[in-house]
């Protein structure tokens, strides 16, 4: 019998950039995100004998992606062994479908590993709490820990495998408008970019310190239901993330000139009384947060810069009834 | 009898951003620049009685600019008094002509105060060394200290009025190509931007620390006559300056989207074997350094982005024969 799970990407308002532990994927600081209501990944895990297999969007995945899946399944099998389950020795056929545009930087590794964590845990017979599923998903891709969570998530950095997990937080009502200015895969992966930042950016320690502070401020702004403050923190923090990255030697720039045009347009919206704030992950695409009622107006203002999608807060990773 | 002096703007390869002493204009770290061979300021100082007057480009300057000139002349008069000169009580008529495009961000305050320092010192009868003229010019505008110097200058940060001055350094043969993408005056002055950076950028201390290190590396690269290394240091350092500024709250961005297009084009030149490196002061305009023989090719590559000028290393501030 197959286990099927569904998870959505998330976009961070307080970003994750830098690992304190590369193997366990413990971040240098906590982060906060909104889980999206679109671009789900649906993943089926069926136990089998023989070798693990991984099919992505109807095609057998390449060796690298298959290897990454097997490494993740090994974690699940270890948990199964610890729980004394017979499944611990089983292989798995993993079938995954991304509804999002491939490689468009819409955090497909977050939804992918969140869905895989939930489906694999179920398939191997593990009974894991949301917290423990978040910890497990984290091992596949750090930000996957947050896609476990409904709507808004805080990923506590923690200092160990036990203490590094995401949980829900209330936040002001908001929508996100994404502007995909470039759908090509980025030149420098996040993994490589994080290493270069740690090794050569003179601002790295200050980035870690300020991100801790920023997360505290974000949690306070959320507790106050203060949309404007949440937006200001988000936009300033995004600038700081791109600044710490840009200070590497040689410089790494994830934002393209057109990305900055979108930031400029968002500032112009605010000048016009349309309250919106911009952020961007490690890539050229920009995500704008605004009040839900303003999403259409915001989308219209940036339609010329790229492909537009509008998001509401979405559900955390969850099991579907098996077919 | 009038004293006439001529000085040129300079473009920093290691930037000055941040004051350790606002009154004395002692910078937080040293810097290094090339004095340009164009866009001179020619300044005439004639002693008079009555009030100081300041005429800029044929028009009587506004109250603010006149006040800034008088404050500077007061420094000169104090030096004259210390030297026991009768001129110490005289006022001055100052007439200044900028050959550069007005407010196009071509460092006209550097050439302006360098020319004023030299002309005023002469008019008041002071016999100052280049070092002391550099110290004096610094009080009008920090980067003016470097325009005293022929070709290439290092401004030693120092810790006092005595120890903060520029002097000559040998550097590899190079040309500069400036791309004026926007000739409008910038929204946030350097003075305001420096204060905001100090007060709100979490990377400020790291910027100071790395700039000290960068200047040491630049001096070493110059001693080795290593053009490529000088270029790499220049471009990385420019990214770091804009990064420390961009990390302010709210973020300040001096570079425009089109500025980043020029940076991208310079990276593309290098991919094509045309060795060039980009930098930018606190404004949207970009300056490219290259080997003198490549200046025409570089200028051609960026002609579409704005008004282009090509510069060789120019002379330091100097007296002209009185008319």
Report what the structure shows.
The structure is a homodimer of 323-residue chains. The first copy, chain A, is of the alpha+beta class. Chain A folds into two domains: 3-171, Ribosomal Protein S5, domain 2; 175-311, 2-Layer Sandwich (Alpha-Beta Plaits). The first copy, chain A, contains nine helices and 16 strands. In chain A, strands 8-7-9-6-1-16 form a six-stranded mixed β-sheet. Chain A has a four-stranded antiparallel β-sheet with strand order 2-5-10-11. In chain A, strand 10 and strand 11 form a beta hairpin. In chain A, helix 2 (108-123) packs across helix 3 and helix 6 (204-223) packs antiparallel against helix 7. Chain A is globular, with a radius of gyration of 19 Å. The model of chain A has no long low-confidence stretch (mean pLDDT 95). The interface between A and B is medium-sized, with 29 and 29 residues.
Distance between the termini of chain A: 9 Å
- Tally of individual domains of chain A: 2
CATH architecture of the largest domain in chain A: 2-Layer Sandwich
- SSE pattern of chain A, N- to C-terminal: EEEEEEEEHEHHHEEEHHHHEEHEE
Family (chains A, B): Belongs to the diphosphomevalonate decarboxylase family.
GO biological process, one term (chains A, B): isopentenyl diphosphate biosynthetic process, mevalonate pathway
Pfam family, one (chains A, B): MDD_C
GO cellular component, one term (chains A, B): cytosol
